[in-house]
Write a structure and sequence with these properties.
Layout lengths: L1 E8 L3 H12 L4 E4 L15 E2 L11 H17 L4 E11 L6 H14 L9 E2 L16 E12 L1 H14 L3 E3 L2 E8 L4 E7 L2 E12 L5 H5 L2 E2 L7 E11 L7 E5 L6 E7 L2 E5 L3 E3 L10 H14 L6 H5 L2 E12 L13 E3 L7 E5 L6 H16 L15
Parallel strand pairs: 1-2, 1-10, 2-7, 4-13, 8-11, 10-19
Antiparallel strand pairs: 3-6, 4-6, 5-6, 8-9, 9-10, 12-15, 12-16, 12-17, 13-14, 14-15, 18-19
Length: 391
């Protein structure tokens, strides 16, 4: 029976990132993914590598600082996959967030970026507002421009997986996790791949299954309770409309949320929503109400665009990712986005991850590596993850 230091369940961005960090640090590593690497949540995000400007509103300062550091590192390590993009925030007479509020937020954003060149922002002169083609000018009081970054999330995830494999990690895609037996000296993990049932031993197991984290826990023996969570769907619409040169950060005309209007392979991507789901029994699908919500906001800001029904004819693709958020009474928009790492006294060799962000997968991986080192001791490293380029 094969034996590994680390077995990881889940081949999204968190799973592959942990695999890369673990194998680079000298641990024998196995990763199991039910479908295609990066084919689920990590292929259905808003495609942004960003600090999360809106998280400042809910006081998530440490998360923003961490995200901005990860943004800087990814721009350096994955220059063909992560690109700096200008963002624009229009402020209108009836905007909920005033020019003063936006300026204060962007100033803090710059400080938290440790005065990275991308931390700079400007107030765009009115004479240049027409360059944001089609944007509503009536009632417009100010336009701010700052910087963040964009990526092809699926390609980035697969690049990290390839890096982990090149260092020696064993990666099995299209593999069904059957179960895990937690023992005092290690864990026995069973999975099915290419029609064959395989059993391996692992000193530690990382549950990085994203929205299905509790489904994995349900297959653990002895039984273990998972953390209560909410699934929150984020819908996106790809429109057959020529893309703008940058990304618009728009305040919803229906509630206090924000959405992005982004260039995506020459077309226009609009997202996202926050719709709570009651189950994951079937693949998530964009709802009619989400389509109306996103197109309603789009048309509010682009009044010369076609009527809603005609805009629907321009939808060439829809997709939605599912976020994992701690179960709370507050609205999804207001809940923390930090990853929760959960273990238990009864199952000390199993670590389960709840939540997380595409941008901060490297910080999450570093934190998990610390947990691994505390339990298995340090090993001679075989590579420095801070110098491994991705592409």
């Amino acid at each position: 029976m094969a034996s590994f230091d680390i077995a990881i369940i889940g081949g999204g961005i968190s799973g592959v990132g942990i695999a890369q960090y673990a194998v680079a640090a000298g641990y024998s590593t196995l990763l199991i993914e039910k479908g295609e690497i990066g084919g689920q949540t990590s292929a259905n995000s808003s495609k942004l590598i960003h600090g999360g400007l809106r998280y400042l509103e809910t006081g998530q300062i440490s998360l923003v600082r961490k995200s901005l550091l990860d943004r800087r590192n990814l721009l350096n390590l994955a220059p063909t996959l992560v690109k700096a993009v200008p963002f624009y925030i229009p402020v209108y007479e009836n905007s909920q967030r005033s020019s003063l509020t936006i300026r204060a937020g962007l100033s803090l954003y710059a400080v938290l970026s440790e005065f990275d060149p991308l931390g700079r922002f400007i107030s765009v002169p009115a004479v240049h507002w027409h360059r944001l083609k089609g944007l509503k000018l009536s009632g417009l009081k100010a336009v701010f421009q700052y910087w963040d970054a964009q990526t092809d999330d699926k390609l980035l995830t697969q690049a990290v997986a390839r890096s982990a494999q090149a260092l020696g990690a064993e990666v099995y895609a299209e593999a069904d996790f059957i179960g895990m037996e937690h023992q005092s000296q290690g864990c026995s993990v069973s999975f099915k791949h290419a029609g064959e049932i395989r059993r391996v031993e692992a000193s530690l197991v990382i549950n990085a299954a994203g929205p299905w984290v509790n489904d994995i826990i349900a297959k653990v023996s002895p039984p273990l309770a998972g953390v209560e969570l909410d699934w929150v769907q984020g819908a996106h619409l790809l429109l057959d409309i020529p893309a703008l040169d940058g990304i618009l950060y728009l305040e919803s005309c229906f509630d206090k949320r924000v959405i992005f209007v982004m260039p995506w392979y020459g077309q226009t991507l609009v997202g996202t929503t926050e719709t709570e789901l009651t189950s994951l029994d079937k693949p998530p699908e964009v709802t009619e109400s989400e389509i109306n919500y996103l197109l309603g906001i789009y048309r509010h800001y682009f009044p010369l665009s076609p009527e809603i029904n005609d805009l629907k004819a321009k939808i060439v693709k829809t997709f939605c990712g599912v976020r994992v958020l701690p179960k709370q009474s507050s609205q999804a928009f207001e809940r923390p986005r930090d990853v929760l790492m959960q273990t238990s006294v009864s199952h000390p060799r199993l670590l389960s991850l709840y939540g997380g962000k595409l941008t901060t997968f490297r910080s999450t991986s570093a934190e998990v590596l610390e947990w691994i080192e505390q339990r298995l001791g340090k090993r001679p490293s075989i590579a420095d993850v801070d110098s491994l380029t991705l592409g």
